Amino acid sequence: MKHRRSIELASPGRHAVEIEKETLATLPQWYVLHARCRICHHETSIDRWEIARRCGRDLSLAEVANRLKCQGCGNRSDNLLLLYKLPRD
What we know:
Elements: E1 8-9, E2 31-36, E3 43-46, H1 48-55, H2 61-66, E4 80-85
Antiparallel strand pairs: 1-4, 2-3, 2-4
């Protein structure tokens, strides 16, 4: 599946990484983090390097997902953490 910017998306049935085990430090550089609110459907990219600087590189992706807050409506529960895979040359 392709994103509108030609970013390869992993299908829901085939998870690219295990978010409980994967950390910001161990996540390959070709993955881009995005967040989507399930209430207002606001979607934005996440600067993983800024989060690593503020919270530590050993923060798991599951912990990042639990900390998400929608900038559109303020929702803090049930937000989605999306991993987009950049094309590799």
